[in-house]
Each structure stands twice: as structure tokens, then as C-alpha cells.
């Protein structure tokens, strides 16, 4: 299904009835990667999946959004669908949005899967690339060289690649840069709802130490580590993920 929210078209699907559960996918993919989770939850809940703007069948925003603009959009989407206090499951980039929504107290409970949101520890190599890029921009702005600037800087970026950055097109590259530099760590202590954290032991995109730190900072949270798994732990051990998710949701429901 498609809906227009404040001038932004978005593709989504809703299945089942009962407690609403919103699924938010990671960067560079779309809601189809969560289809198995969606179908499982739809047997007992109202499962809602969305292609976030700029992914899947949802066109990119017209302006450079950061995570807070994406979260604002999700809130407007929920209001349009008359959904209050959903459970939110977010993977990676979707986890960033889940953190913001939970800190705003509009969720019932959350599940963070290999979630982004904490700024990574930067290596000396990273800062060397940043400073060399800034130096290159300054040099290419000099008279006689500025006409070659775009081509030269494009070549520099290709020699210092980020796979997500290189895969992004158009405005999504600017959005990616803005998103990955937004630190959500200060919001974690503001989350007052139950939180389940599921992490891949060998995640190299959002390393396990970030999940461990989130568990320390979110008051009512618990971390489950999937041994031998990477950044898509929920897909690598889908059956285990669904079993743990069911237990968490049923346990929390029994407390109410």
C-alpha cells in the first residue's frame, strides 16, 4: 500500500490484528528483509512494515533528512494510521529511529537488533582520511584548480570508500553522512519502556560493545548475544530470534 504523509510518499503493509508492532529496516535495504518476522507476528499482532523514505518503493525525501526528521515522519505515519503506543522492532538504521521514538515515550516496548545510534570509536586511519579530504578540498579551491575540483574529489572518495556511501544515490548520500554523524547515546537513559537488545557476536558494523553499552544505559533492558552471527543476527538465526521475541512480548504482556 502507498500513502502520502506531508507530501512524502511511502510504501507500507499491514497484516493481522491486535497489538501494533512496527518493523523498521536498516540502511541500504527495505522492508522485504523483515518479511519473515512480519508474517510471524501477523499471526498474533498487527504487523506494520514500512519502506523508509529513500529505500524500496518509497522515494527519497526532497530535503536532507537526519534521524530526527525520519523519526518525525514515522510519528506522522503512526498518527495517520491511528496507531498509539506500538511495539517497535528496529534493525541497524531502524534501531536509530526506534531509540528516538522510545525516548519520546510513544512506544509500548522496543526490540533493538544490531542497532546503530552510538558513534563508533574512530581510528587514526579514519581521521587521516577526513583531514586529507579537507586538505584536498582546500587545495582544489585554489585559482586554476577549482575547475577540476568535482572530478578530483570524486576520485578521492572512490579511493576511500564506504560501501553504504558508495551505494547511495543522489540526496541519499548527503542523508547518509548526516545520519551516521548523529549521536543518540544521550537519549538512551531517557528510554523508560522495556527494551530487548539482540546482537550478533561478530557484528562489525555496530560492534557488540555498542549493544553492551546500550544495555548499561537503558534502564529496563536486557541483551541477548547470538554467537557466531554478524550484523544481521536476526536473519542468521531467525527461528531463535522469533522464539525470543515471542517470549519477550508475552512476558511483558503478562505484567500489564
* Strand fraction: 15-25%
Helix content: 40-55%
Number of helices: 10
Q: Which of globular, elongated, flat, extended, rod-shaped describes the shape? A: globular
Which class of the largest domain in CATH terms? Alpha Beta
* Spatial strand sequence of the major β-sheet: 1-2-4-3-5-6-7-8
Helix/strand-derived category reads alpha/beta
Classify the fold: give the CATH topology of the largest domain.
Answer: Rossmann fold
Q: In CATH, what is the homologous superfamily of the largest domain?
A: Alpha/Beta hydrolase fold, catalytic domain
CATH architectural group of the largest domain: 3-Layer(aba) Sandwich
Count of beta strands: 8
- Radius of gyration of CA atoms, rounded to a whole number: 19 Å
Distance between the first and last residues' Cα:
33 Å
Uncertain parts:
123-136
Mind explaining what this structure looks like?
Helices cover 42% and strands 18% of the residues. The chain is built from ten helices and eight strands. The two termini are 33 Å apart. The model is unreliable at 123-136 (pLDDT under 50).
Amino acid at each position: 500500500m502507498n500513502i502520502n504523509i506531508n507530501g512524502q510518499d511511502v510504501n507500507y503493509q499491514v497484516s493481522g490484528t491486535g497489538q501494533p508492532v512496527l518493523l523498521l529496516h536498516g540502511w541500504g535495504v527495505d522492508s522485504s528483509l523483515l518479511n519473515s518476522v512480519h508474517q510471524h507476528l501477523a499471526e498474533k499482532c498487527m504487523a506494520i512494515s514500512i519502506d523508509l523514505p529513500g529505500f524500496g518503493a518509497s522515494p527519497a525525501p526532497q530535503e536532507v533528512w537526519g534521524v530526527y526528521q525520519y523519526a518525525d515522519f514515522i510519528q506522522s505515519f503512526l498518527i495517520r494510521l491511528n496507531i498509539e503506543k506500538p511495539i517497535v522492532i528496529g534493525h541497524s538504521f531502524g534501531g536509530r529511529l526506534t531509540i528516538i521514538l522510545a525516548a519520546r515515550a510513544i512506544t509500548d516496548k522496543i526490540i533493538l537488533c544490531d542497532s546503530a545510534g552510538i558513534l563508533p570509536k574512530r581510528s587514526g586511519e579514519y581521521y587521516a582520511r577526513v583531514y586529507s579530504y579537507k586538505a584536498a578540498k582546500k587545495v582544489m579551491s585554489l585559482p586554476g584548480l577549482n575547475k577540476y575540483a568535482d572530478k578530483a574529489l570524486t576520485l578521492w572518495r572512490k579511493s576511500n570508500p564506504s560501501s553504504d556511501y558508495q551505494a547511495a544515490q543522489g540526496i541519499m548520500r548527503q542523508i547518509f553522512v548526516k545520519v551516521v554523524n548523529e549521536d543518540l547515546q544521550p537519549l538512551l537513559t531517557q528510554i523508560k519502556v522495556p527494551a530487548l537488545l539482540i546482537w550478533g557476536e561478530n557484528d562489525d558494523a555496530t560492534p557488540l560493545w555498542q549493544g553492551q553499552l546500550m544495555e548499561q544505559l537503558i534502564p529496563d533492558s536486557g541483551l541477548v548475544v547470538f554467537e557466531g552471527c554478524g550484523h544481521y543476527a536476526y536473519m542468521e538465526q531467525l527461528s531463535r530470534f522469533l522464539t525470543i521475541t515471542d517470549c519477550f512480548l508475552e512476558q511483558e504482556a503478562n505484567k500489564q
